[in-house]
Amino acid sequence: MTPALELIGIRKRFGSVHALRGADFTLLPGELHALLGENGAGKTTLMRVAAGLLRPDSGHVRVAETEPHAFSPRIARRLGIGMVHQHFTSVPAFTVAENVALAAGWPVAPSRVRERVRELSARVGLPLDPDARAERLSVALRQRLEIVKALAAEARILLLDEPTAVLAPAEVADLLRVIRRFTESGGAVVLITHKLDEALSAADRVTVLRRGEVVSSGAVEGQSAETLAAAMIGGSLSEAGGGPPPASAAPGPPARGVGARPAVRIESLDVARDGGYGIALRGASLTIGPGEIVGVAAVEGNGQRELLRAVAGRLHPLRGVREVAAPVGFIPEDRSTEGLIPDMTLTENIVLGASGSEPWIRGGAIDWSAARARTAELIQEYAIDAPSPDIAAATLSGGNQQRLVVARELARRPAVVVAENPTRGLDIRATATIHARLRRAASEGAAVLLHSGDLDEVLALATRVVVVRSGAVILPPPDATRETIGGSMLAGS
Amino acid sequence: MTETIPLVAGFLAAAVRVATPIMLAATGETITQRSGVLNLGIEGMMLAGALAATLGATAVGPWTGVALGIGAGMLLAAVFALVVIGARADQVIAGTAITLGAVGLTGTIYRQAYGAGGAGLDLPTLAPIPLPGLSSLPILGPALFSQPAPTYLGFLAVPIVWWLLFRTRAGLALRATGESAEVARASGVPTRRVRAAATLAGGGFAGLAGATLVLAQVGSFAERMTAGRGYVAIAIVVLGRWHPAGVAVAALAFGAAMALQFLFQTLELDLPYQLFLMLPYVLALLALAGMVGRVRAPADLAKP
Amino acid sequence: MRARGWLVGTGALLAGIAVLATGLGLAGYDAGLALGALWSGAFGSWYAITSATLVRSVPLVVIGLGLAIAFRAGAFNIGAEGQFYAGAIAATWLGLHVGSLPAPLAAAAVLSVALLAGALWVAVPVLLRVRYGVLEVISTLLLNFVAEATMSLVVQGPLQERQGIYPQSDAIAEAARLPLMPGTRLHAGFLIALAGAAVLHHLFTRTVWGFQLRAVGLGQRAAEISGRIDSRWAVAGALAISGAIAGLAGGIEVAGVSYALFQNLSPGYGFTAIAVALLGRLHPLGVVLAGILFGALEAGASAMQREAGVPAVAVYVVEAVVILVVLLAESLRRGGTTALAAIGSATGTAWGRG
Q1: Do C211 and A368 lie within an 8 Å CB cutoff?
Q2: What is the mean pLDDT of each run of 10 residues along chain A (493 residues)?
Q3: Are A160 and A192 in contact (CB under 8 A)?
Q4: B-C contacts (CB, under 8 Å)
Q5: What is the phi/psi pair of residue B62, to 5°?
Q6: How many other C-beta atoms are found inside a 10 Å radius of the C-beta of residue A109?
Q7: Which residue of B has its CA nearest to C135?
Q8: Which of A9, A81, B156, C97 is 20 to 30 A from C149, alpha carbon to alpha carbon?
Q9: What is the ipTM metric for this complex?
């Protein structure tokens, strides 16, 4: 069978980072091919090469056995390749119709475009309202838009980058159904994922990438979680510190200080949507005691952001009671725009989070040499890979940047720690460090409130789980399983 | 009461005449800003266009002046584009520098070309062209249909620019560049080229505006004669919400506010004329404040 | 300031002068004569240095210092020209009435009221930005024209000289005038400028306030979320202070140089100071040096006009080229960011090691 897409010997370097070291990949028509690997293995980079967004340092890209001389997003589109990225790649201010017209290169005749969008999206099982503003779409609908855009551009090869990361279990099932229809009609799909079970259950073939190289590739039949994991991390599951997700969400051993005064107490809290319209959180009530790790399971856009930020004091509630012990450490989702100032040095970023009671702030003055010394200490303590405290934060890798943010927030010895997606986009070692730090903070008496889009991460870390759905905080029953929690994350269940 | 009709008609005609350069500059700036570029050099480009038009008109004739004016505006726009799009430098500073340099350049060239005496008032100008039939309509006739050619060009530009921006693929690509350049690039749009083209177009319009100021309004050149009209055009773009029709209306309103001084002079009111000089700017400020919350600039405006 | 900054600045200056010389040559002027006049007008004699260059540098340095504050916080105050005029008008008005006060007090009063007037003039853009998010680039710009018109009104109306012939005010009281360095026209305003630079340097490097300004300018969102800084008020404060300082510059010009009010008191100081602030990389010492440089250029320009017949405005071309070259050098090095980030971070690592 002629492969739909072939990547041969792809090498790509970013500065001193070798993202891809001669990776090969073959995609056959009509198949759902999982591209598996840890965060940082090179999966996204490889697919971006396939989509014409990145030029490889060496290697070949062949589409249906023809090798185009110059490869660009435009040419990729013409050859029938469409990529759906993890982050939003539509123009927020445009409508669904305008975004589709832009992506597909349709002539701009508004009513005709709207008709075509309506018809196409319904036909493939992903109905969309053409006049909706892209920025107002929910996360799941945004993803639909991305897929419809690719299909409108007549893609026969779909490259999906972690599409299920932001979906609840039932939405994942829907998506996989739609993808199946596409492959049955002859299209080919690459599903980039770091989730073993997804690859095992959904894909026909699977390729595993590790540190920029292909370590295994072949049919899914005959593979198991163990074999795949071994390929992904080059060792056994237990070595990685991961493992099958816990079967229940029952609270762990009683937290220290149970019965002591709660560190976080909110009651009937209403919070307006952050950066949007309307009320995101309504009548929320929650208490967290010192030493507890409360994990929030929620699909993006249901109000968990507002919950976390209201507890952290970054959003003001419209009404209700908020009693939170000080100091509060906050690890925001977006480290490069909210956690750090990339153009400032590491020392300055540490100073940024100062509460005023640090020894190197006296009156309104800053003792820079003391601040710098403290930063150097933190760099050591948190194993941040940086030559000195005087370099700009922008030069750190994502994992090191996140370590810096965590270092700063935890150095304050906070009574409450709020963490939003603290390990997003990080490799396994950085993830493990941060998990360990959060657990340590809890064992030292901090109350931790945490949310991650990865339900399994939430279940692994939390001593107690709550669900946020449509602005309401829901406490799952003590015998809740992963499936029931996943189900309660979705509206209508 | 028979005097009010010619008075109103005269006022409206003056308003349209005064508004034309601003409308032209603002229409060009709308295209530029929609692509994500904030061009503060528009004041300098207008001034350069005014001088170039003066030179062209003196040497050959008014239409040569117009052509040279457009060219001068585009030349400065090319320098600006090289700096802010080519080298991705800060747009506000670069634009301010361009205007500063244009003031120096035009002042020097003007003195050199015309000496201390100046260009004088014997410049061949663009006379009003009454449109047959339409110009005899009561009140609106002389105001809208008995204007020099650039005014008609300005009016024509509105539907043309609208159509280009909202009904063509190129316009969609341009707007996408201004809203989210990254997404546009991922869709295959050559964003740098688009921005450069939009900047050049804006510069051309600014140059035309300058030429219009000299050849169809004032009748001669003086140093710094644009007196901030280019900057006003930027405010007009905001007031017009980056839409060609809105911009035209806002420009006409501003022109009317400026023309008020002539009206009140004829009415012989005993108010200092400087109040009327200030009025349009104050009104613009009030309008800006009044647009609270409903104004949305292109999201990627002024990002390198 | 680091060595590279010096190199780029010097290179930019040379480029600007080269462009000027070429242009003048092409236009038929005697470029050599013109450049010679430019130099001697700026540095050719003790008198030139003190009474031309340094005197002209004072408004540029003072306004530049204020703009450095605003730009650090990411607030683009393009209305310094109007704020300068507001300060000048207020200073003149008070200066006409304080003759009976002892000299230091009268001068201080006049400067204080100029400070206040500048702050008031920028209050509307500040309000518009804080409450409505209106771009201060446009609102401050528009107010420049209102200020110019107000100037015209005032010197032909309420403040016009008693004789009523020329559009200018009477001279302010002796007591309100700033002391001069003997034998020159260099006034105490120069000392105020230097003192201001020193104070600002301390504030920028050592205080929490200075740090917060930079944080807001370099990363507003992070400053708000991680730094818990109220960026709206940080920006508003920075804008207000920069307006006040620009007003002060106007008062200094009246109390130290012109002693009276007339139209075109400012040949565009408010705009040139933008270039001064940026060339000085928002660093007080840099602003002083850049201010003196531009003061020299404009002093030399007058001489150039007198002796070589080259219009003084030609010097703006030099200034424009200098700005563009520095911008280009900075952007090419960093692959393009807003100049603010480029300038801010270039000095940032120096700050961090206080």
Answers
A1: no
A2: 90 80 93 85 89 90 84 86 86 93 90 92 88 85 89 92 79 88 92 84 91 89 82 55 37 47 91 81 92 89 90 92 92 91 93 84 89 94 90 87 93 93 81 91 94 85 91 86 77 46
A3: yes
A4: 163
A5: -60, -40
A6: 12
A7: B288
A8: C97
A9: 0.87
